DCC family thiol-disulfide oxidoreductase YuxK (Micromonospora noduli), 139 residues
Amino acid sequence: METSTFVYDGDCAFCTSCAEFIERRIPTAARVVPWQFADLEALGLTVAECEEAVQWVGADGSRAAGPDAIAKLLAASGPLWRIAGAGLRIPPVRVAAWPLYRWVARNRHRLPGGTAACSLPQEARERLYGPTGRPTTGA
């Protein structure tokens, strides 16, 4: 793998909004890709891991999840963002970041840009909306 990869939930509108912010505002050489379009096997990731949290797979094969993945992404970005990434790695901040991350993940459907589909596991989303994300008509 030549490039680091940041993997997020592309079926979640809140997550997609965050990924679009990253692509617009955070200069990084990392690929930012929804897990639904990523080669998870090549990245060494599972669907369960990707449903649980954002994932970072470094060009060197290093891995991180949740706020640790965000810290890695920021560390691989421009100078000001690297400072924020370093801040996320400070032990007390890192310890506090996980409960906050889990709260956001559980409530992402209530956050700006979120939709009801954001709160469902992938299996339920596919059952309701199909693999394309459009509501199924029931046959």
Notes: The CA atoms of residues 4 and 30 lie 5 Å apart. The radius of gyration is 15 Å. Confidence is low (pLDDT under 50) at residues 132-139. The helical segments are 13-25, 40-43, 47-52, 66-75, 79-88, 91-107, 122-129.
